[in-house]
Amino acid sequence: xxxxxxxxxxxxxTSDVVGDPYEDWSGVRSPGxxxxxxxxxxxxxxxxxxxxNGQFYHDRIHNTIICHPADYYRIQQKVxxx
Length: 82
Hints:
Blueprint: E1 2-7, E2 10-15, E3 20-24, H1 31-39, E4 47-51, E5 57-59, E6 64-67, H2 69-80
Parallel strand pairs: 2-6
Antiparallel strand pairs: 1-2, 3-4, 5-6
C-alpha cells in the first residue's frame, strides 16, 4: 500500500516496501515442517513484509520524501507538536 501526502509544502510518498525486510511465518501450520519442505524446493505460505527502520529518502530536486507509513505518522506527530 502506498500513498501520497503533503507535509509543510513537501510531498511525501509512503510505501510499504521501504524499510527492513522480514519473513512472516504466521501463515504456515507447522514452522519446522515448512522449513524442511522449503529446503527441498516446495513453495510455502511465507510472506516477505517490511518493518519501519526510522529512515527515509529525501529527494531535494523534486522536494519529496519517500518513507514507510509508520515513519510518516511519526514525522507528522513531531511537526504537529513542534
